[in-house]
Amino acid sequence: MKAVISGSFDPITRGHVDIICRAGRLFDELVVGVAVNSAKNGIFSMEERVELVVAAVAHMPHVSVAPVSGLLVDFCQEQGADVIVRGLRFGGDFDYELQMAHLNKSMGGIETVLLPAGREFGTISSSIIRSAASNGGDVGEFVPDAVASALRGRFGTGGH
């Protein structure tokens, strides 16, 4: 069975990687869809985010990465995926993801599987990472090495 996990991944965090690894063990194939979220002020271009995600999942042979444009259900159909995987950190995430799951099921017949975030990085978000790194914070323990390096390049700080 093939699944898609999507997000803006701006930047990808160790929490994202944990969810991707866990989802990768549940499905034969997993596509990480890198999407644009117009509600967020991003720091990396689509190309940069795809490269950073590819680097973060390179150790997972049955995981691929592709940019998403348009509706996620259309992307899933293009990829031949049966399932969308989404990570949950808090109750508010559940409320939003449940609405999206119902919409994706109605629009594309795609089921959604919700995975709770792991304890270690479950409270970390890309927004917090962006804010901390842009203000000189060392976020290296919360992001893959390639992301820490990219953040240092962007802000002069942000990694170890």
TrEMBL record:
Residues 5-131 form the Cytidyltransferase-like domain. GO terms for cellular component: cytoplasm. Substrate binds at residues 8, 40, 72, 86. Pathway: Cofactor biosynthesis; coenzyme A biosynthesis; CoA from (R)-pantothenate: step 4/5. It catalyses: (R)-4'-phosphopantetheine + ATP + H(+) = 3'-dephospho-CoA + diphosphate. Keywords: ATP-binding, Coenzyme A biosynthesis, Cytoplasm, Magnesium, Nucleotide-binding, Nucleotidyltransferase, Transferase. InterPro entries: Cyt_trans-like (IPR004821), PPAT (IPR001980), Rossmann-like_a/b/a_fold (IPR014729). Its cofactor is Mg(2+). Gene3D superfamilies: HUPs (3.40.50.620). It comes from the Bacteria. ATP binds at residues 8-9, 16, 87-89, 97, 121-127. It is found in: Cytoplasm. Reversibly transfers an adenylyl group from ATP to 4'-phosphopantetheine, yielding dephospho-CoA (dPCoA) and pyrophosphate. PANTHER family: PHOSPHOPANTETHEINE ADENYLYLTRANSFERASE. This is Phosphopantetheine adenylyltransferase. It comes from Acidipropionibacterium virtanenii. The gene is coaD.
